[in-house]
Amino acid sequence: MAIASRIDTVRAVATVLLPTLAKGVIVRRPHVMGAAEKIQADATAVATMRALRERYGPEPIRLRITGRNIALLVDPDDVSRLLAESPEPFSLATKEKNAALEHFQPHGVIVSRGAVRERRRELNERVLRPSNVPVEEIVRDEADLLVRHALNTGSLDWDGFAQVWWRIARRVVLGNAARDDEQLIDDLKALRQSGNWAYLHPRRRGLRQRFERRLRQHLERGEQGSLAAVAPPEDLEGQVPHWLFAFDAAGIVAMRALAIGGTGAPGILESARLWPTTPIILRESTEHTKWHGTWLPKGTTFVVFTPFFHRDPDRLDFADSYAPEIWDGPRDPAIVPFSGGPGVCPGRDLVLTTAGTLIDMVSEHLKWPTLSAPLPKTLNHFGLRFTVTPVGTRVA
Ligand code: HEM
Fold first, then answer.
1. pTM above 0.85, yes or no
2. How far is ligand 1, taken at its centre, from the CA of residue 268, in Å?
C-alpha cells in the first residue's frame, strides 16, 4: 500500500496543498498570486507530484495526517473513475468545501447530497444552457466598450477587463437592470473572502443578508433574456451565488486565454487546462472503496491536483504549449478543467460560449504580443497587461 513517509507528507502539504490554499481557493489573493508567479509555485508542486509517483507507483498515495485519511491520486484512470463514480460513493460535498462555501452559498448544489442534490443539479443543468440567453448580443455591446477603451489607452489590463466581464456576467445571469450593480459583486467578494478561511472565519450575517436581499430583488424581476427568467426566484436564489462566484473564474480564464492568443471555445479550454481555476478537485467517500487492490476507509478525502495531470511532461508532449487541437478528439481522461462525470461543471457550455465569444470579438479588433511555449506554470492574471494595436497595423 502506498503510504507517504512523514517527510514526503510534509513535502506534499508544503508544496502542493498549502500554496493552493494560500493563493485563495474561493477568491484569489493578489499579493500571494504575484509571489506565487515569481517563484513559479506550480512548477514545484508538479515536480513534487512527479517525484511521489516515481517513488510510490500509480496507487493513490495516502498522506500521514493525524485524524484524517487523505489520498492523492496519481493515475489518470483513477481520476476518471473518481469523477465517474460521483456523487456516490464519491461525494462532492466534502468537509472542506462545506466549510468554505457555507459563507455564501449554503444551498448550492455542490454542498448538497442525496435527493436534494439531484433536484438542484437538474435545475442547474436546465437553467445554465447558453441558448437561454442572447449571449452574442450581450457580449458584443460590452466587447465594443472594452475595445474602444483599450484603443484609447493603448493597453488592456486585468482591471479594465474584469469590469467588462462582470457587466457581462450580471446581464447574463440577472438581466440588463443589474448591469451596473457592482455592490452585489463586492458584497459577494467580501463573503467569499471569509470563505477562503473556511471554518476559521466567523459568519458575517449582516453582510450576507444584504447580499441576499439585493440578489432577490434582481431575481424577482425575472428579466427576459437572462437566466433569472428561466426558473422561479425561490428556486434560483440558492444557486445564483455559486454562478456569480464562478463567473470570476471564467473571467480569469478568458484573460489568460488572451495572453496566449487563444480563440473561441478551444482557447478557453486550453487556458483552463494550462492554469486550472479549480486546481484541487476533492471528493469524500461515503463507503469503503478498493483501489489497486487496497481498501480505503469510508470518509477518505481524495485529492486530484489538476495542474499535475494537465502539465505532466512524462505523459503529454504538449504539456507546456497552447494546443487547442487536443479538444477535437478523444482526450486524456485526467485533463479535466471543468471536472467530469455526473459532477461536471454545469456552467461549462455557458462559459465556453460567453468567454469564447468575448475573446473572439476582442481579437477581431486588437492585437498584442502573446506568450509562447514553454508557458509558465503559474500565471498571475492580476499582473497581465497587454500593449494593444488595432488589427491591420504591425505590432512593434
Ligand atoms: C472557467 C470557468 C469555470 C471553470 C473552470 C469551472 C470548473 C468547475 C469545476 C472543476 C467544477 C467541479 C468542482 C468539483 O468537482 O468539486 C465545477 C462545478 C460547478 N460549476 Fe463550474 N466552472 C466555471 C464556471 C462556472 C460558471 C460560470 C458557472 C455558472 C454560471 C458554474 C457552475 C458550476 C456549478 C453549479 C458547479 C457544481 C456542480 C455540482 O455540484 O454538480 N461554473 N465547475
1. yes
2. 14
